[in-house]
């Protein structure tokens, strides 16, 4: 890979990440408010079932399609290792599949994991406190 393609690739990854920054509202089956908040590369919060947790060790791979987004959440004996795939449509709608403590599939599938749909909030206020 030459220097020009490395710069273009880095620029593309930055652009892809910037599209994700903000508050994403997750459609939940039970109507409980759920959010994925991407504040910056070091601060990603997930609010689900009334609890907000920081996504630790977050890794985004924009070379994959759909994107791979992995993180851990929790502490002590209750650490979850989450592997996900993520596809963004029109910059404000996303499909996100989570695989908790199991291997990810390379594409969306109904046979494993949990599929969620998200819409980017027009009110992009993000939570500043984390757990």
TL;DR?
With 131 residues, the chain is mostly beta strands. Helices cover 14% and strands 47% of the residues.
What does this structure look like?
The chain has 1 helix and 9 strands, in the order H-E-E-E-E-E-E-E-E-E. The protein has one helix spanning 3-20; strands at 22-27, 34-40, 43-48, 51-54, 56-61, 67-73, 80-89, 93-100, 114-120. A 9-stranded antiparallel sheet has the order 4-3-2-1-9-8-7-6-5. The radius of gyration is 15 Å and the shape is globular. The protein is mainly beta.
List keywords for this structure.
mainly beta; 131 residues; Lipocalin; nine-stranded antiparallel beta sheet; 14% helix; globular
N/C terminus separation: 41 Å
Which strand order spans the largest sheet, edge to edge or round the barrel? 4-3-2-1-9-8-7-6-5
Would you tell me the overall average pLDDT? 84
Overall geometric form: globular
The CATH topology corresponds to: Lipocalin
Secondary structure elements and pairings:
Blueprint: H1 3-20, E1 22-27, E2 34-40, E3 43-48, E4 51-54, E5 56-61, E6 67-73, E7 80-89, E8 93-100, E9 114-120
Antiparallel strand pairs: 1-2, 1-9, 2-3, 3-4, 5-6, 6-7, 7-8, 8-9
């Amino acid at each position: 890979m030459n220097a020009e393609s490395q710069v273009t690739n880095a620029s593309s990854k930055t652009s892809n990440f910037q599209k994700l920054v903000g508050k994403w509202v997750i459609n939940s089956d039970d109507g409980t408010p759920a959010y994925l908040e991407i504040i910056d590369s070091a601060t990603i919060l997930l609010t689900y079932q009334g609890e907000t947790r920081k996504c630790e060790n977050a890794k985004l791979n924009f070379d994959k399609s759909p994107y791979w987004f992995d993180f851990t959440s929790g502490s002590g004996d209750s650490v979850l290792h989450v592997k996900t795939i993520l596809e963004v449509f029109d910059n404000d709608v996303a499909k996100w599949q989570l695989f908790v403590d199991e291997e990810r599939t390379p594409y969306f599938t109904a046979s494993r994991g949990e599929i969620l749909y998200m819409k980017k909030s027009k009110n992009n206020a993000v939570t500043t406190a984390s757990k």
